[in-house]
């Protein structure tokens, strides 16, 4: 309760623009611990706050940095970036559209080994523990990101020729069907079907070994 009151006071002070400048400055430093704190701050300022989410639209440098941190070698930075993107894009169509427009970022994530990391993130189902709901929600959002990546024409051949990734897409289409997670995994099954559909739409022959 106290933390929430503090967050609202900060929002009332309208410090978002200044925070964003500081965030961009910190992205140029090689300091993972500081970056985690800045990502958490951005996530908190974007939680249930459409005005700040709308301000991020067009802030390409900051937004690209957040997207890039998803594939950080530092696990904590990567995890925090996923949560930050979730808060930024939750129920906000302008921000979701802006993320899709970041084609260069998507193409970067499609390069080895980044795309495999995103697939592995979705494949992993965390054991029940406090915070599992947040992880599951982030996992579903990452599956949407992968679906968007498969729409990029420039990397279509790479995806179609990667038998391992194609196999994972097919595996997603049956995710949860043999367990108690049928309903929870519905979005993952949909993402798998959409990924395969995007590749099929391109007319490229798919490596089905």
Outline the structure in words.
The protein has helices at 2-12, 16-27, 32-46, 50-56, 60-68, 75-89, 93-101, 103-109, 114-123, 132-149, 156-160, 163-172, 186-202. By secondary structure, the protein is mostly helical. It is globular and about 50 Å long.
Q: What's the average pLDDT?
A: 77
**Shape field:** globular
How many helices does DSSP assign? 13
What is the tally of beta strands? 0
Poorly predicted ranges (pLDDT <50, ≥5 residues)? none
Q: Helicity, in percent?
A: 55-70%
Q: Which structural class should the secondary elements be placed in? A: mainly alpha
Give the topology string: H per helix, E per strand.
Answer: HHHHHHHHHHHHH
Question: Which percent band covers the strand fraction?
Answer: under 5%
- Specify the biggest β-sheet: none
Rounded to the nearest angstrom, the distance between the terminal CA atoms is 55 Å
Question: What is the CA-atom radius of gyration, in angstroms?
Answer: 18 Å
Oligomer: single chain
Short descriptors:
209 residues, mainly alpha
Summarize the structure.
The chain is mainly alpha-helical and 209 residues long. The chain is built from 13 helices and no strands.
């Amino acid at each position: 309760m106290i933390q929430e009151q503090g967050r609202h006071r900060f929002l009332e002070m309208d410090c978002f623009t200044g925070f964003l400048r500081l965030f961009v400055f910190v992205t140029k430093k090689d300091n993972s611990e500081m970056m985690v704190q800045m990502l958490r701050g951005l996530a908190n300022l974007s939680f249930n706050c459409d005005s700040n989410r709308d301000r991020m639209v067009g802030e390409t440098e900051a937004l690209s940095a957040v997207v890039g941190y998803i594939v950080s070698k530092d696990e904590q930075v990567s995890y925090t970036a996923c949560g930050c993107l979730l808060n930024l894009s939750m129920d906000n169509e302008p921000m979701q559209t802006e993320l899709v427009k970041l084609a260069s970022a998507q193409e970067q994530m499609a390069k080895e080994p980044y795309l495999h990391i995103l697939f592995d993130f979705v494949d992993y189902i965390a054991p029940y523990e406090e915070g599992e709901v947040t992880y599951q929600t982030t996992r579903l959002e990452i599956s949407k990101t992968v679906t968007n990546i498969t729409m990029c024409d420039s990397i279509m051949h790479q995806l179609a020729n990667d038998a391992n990734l194609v196999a994972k897409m097919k595996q997603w289409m049956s995710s949860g069907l043999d367990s108690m997670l049928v309903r929870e995994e519905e979005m993952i099954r949909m993402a798998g079907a959409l990924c395969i559909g995007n590749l099929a739409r391109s007319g490229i022959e798919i490596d089905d070994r």
